[in-house]
Design brief:
By secondary structure, the protein is mainly beta. The protein contains two helices and ten strands, in the order ββαβββββαβββ.
C-alpha cells in the first residue's frame, strides 16, 4: 500500500484565479455609469496585455464605484482610478505599452491612460470623444497610447459625459463638477 504524500512531496493543487484566466479574441464588456451604459468590444488579439489587464481589474471589482475624473471636450474622458472623493485606488504592477498594435485612437475607442513613462499603465483608461491621431504617433519616448477596444453601443453616453461642467479638485483639473460614477463594469459572454 502506498504511503500518503507528505506536505513536502504532495503535488501542488492547481490554483484557479479568475483574474488571471487568459482572454482571447473579442471580449465584450459593459460599463454602467450614472449617465448611462457603454457597451465595449475589447480586442485581445491586437492588445492582449491591455485587455487582460482590464479584465483582471473588472473581475476584482476594481472599477465599481470609481469615477470619470478627467473630462476634456474635444479630446477624451478618463476614468478607472479614483473614488468620488478623489482618492486613488491601489493598483497592480504596470503593463507593457501596446501602442504599436495597429489600433488607432479614433472617436469611440478605449485606450490605456499612462504617465510620461510609456510602460506605466495600470487601471486608468480613456475613451476618445474625437479622432486623436496625435496619440497614435510615438512621442519623444517612441510610444503612443495603446488602444484596446471600442464603444459599440452608448456613444451618446460619452457625449453626455464630455458635456458635463468641470472644475478643479485639489491638484486635479477637468474634474466633473458633479461626480460621474462608474457603478459597475462587467464582462459579458
Amino acid at each position: 500500500m502506498a504511503q500518503e504524500p507528505t506536505p513536502e512531496t504532495k503535488p501542488e493543487e492547481p490554483k484557479t484565479d479568475t483574474t488571471t484566466q487568459p482572454v482571447k479574441g473579442i471580449v465584450k464588456a459593459i460599463i454602467e455609469t450614472s449617465k448611462g451604459n457603454l457597451e465595449l468590444e475589447l480586442d485581445a488579439e491586437k492588445a492582449p496585455l491591455s485587455v487582460q489587464n482590464f479584465v483582471n481589474y473588472v473581475n476584482k471589482g476594481h472599477y465599481n464605484g470609481t469615477i470619470f475624473h478627467r473630462v476634456i471636450p474635444g479630446f477624451m474622458i478618463q476614468g478607472g482610478g479614483f473614488t468620488p472623493d478623489m482618492q486613488q485606488k491601489p493598483t497592480d504592477k504596470p503593463i507593457q505599452c501596446e501602442s504599436k498594435n495597429g489600433l488607432k485612437n479614433a472617436k469611440g475607442t478605449i485606450a490605456m491612460a499612462r504617465t510620461n513613462d510609456p510602460h506605466s499603465a495600470t487601471t486608468q483608461f480613456f475613451i476618445n470623444v474625437k479622432d486623436n491621431a496625435s496619440l497614435d504617433f510615438p512621442s519623444f519616448d517612441g510610444w503612443g497610447y495603446a488602444v484596446f477596444g471600442k464603444v459599440t453601443k452608448g456613444i451618446e453616453v460619452t457625449d453626455a459625459i464630455v458635456a458635463s461642467p468641470t472644475t478643479s479638485k485639489g491638484p486635479h483639473s477637468d474634474v466633473p463638477a458633479e461626480a460621474i460614477t462608474i457603478t459597475k463594469v462587467s464582462i459579458v459572454e
